[in-house]
């Protein structure tokens, strides 16, 4: 009578399968370990792919300039070197759960145009997304205020009010909010804008959300432009102030040779002769 093993071998031949020999026999414990290792490897690969997809989605939703990275930053002045050092310390602090849960943190970057304020803020955001999957939103304050004013146009047919409410909720929920061009070309914000921004910052403070504010004003002028109510909300945060005073890194426009010739009279509109 055929043994059980012989029957299995016969079935394997019928199905066109290879018949294992004695030397290929693997005990149950070893086989189980092999399957577990293979399963763990596949799970790790899926987790890595899922993380990569989440990070790509976070980068896409942030509206950050992809060129704003530390790798693309030229540390050619003392203020930039200091700003990068503070930025790296700020990023490293996110490793400490107690620090993250202790309260809200505010970085204020101020200085003239073209000094690298937005670049470094973007570099911080990119690295926080990559390392800690922090949700980030980059917005210019003037754009938000224009959207807010449009929301009060009750005759509008484009659902401006609903769009602004959704945008406002996103401003409240995101982990890191970067507000650029704060009070640009503004000596003083309108009172209702001051109140709206102050309330936004206070609500983010309560929810332990972090912010970066970027402005061309010095701190004294910023206080005047934001108004006391709004500026007081900044003081409630654990605040890091970084002043940018180095040379502008933006390339200037060069005049063509024909533009530099001043001997010929030039046309001036509405000129009285």
Automatic annotation (TrEMBL):
Record GO biological process: DNA replication
Residue ranges constituting the IstB-like ATP-binding domain according to the UniProt record: 105-227
Pfam families, A to Z: IstB_IS21 (PF01695)
Amino acid composition bias (Polar residues), ranges on this chain: 261-273
Molecular function terms from GO: ATP binding
Region feature Disordered, mapped onto this chain: 254-273
Highest taxon in the source lineage: Bacteria
UniProt protein name: Flavodoxin
Phylogenetic lineage: Bacteria, Pseudomonadati, Pseudomonadota, Gammaproteobacteria, Alteromonadales
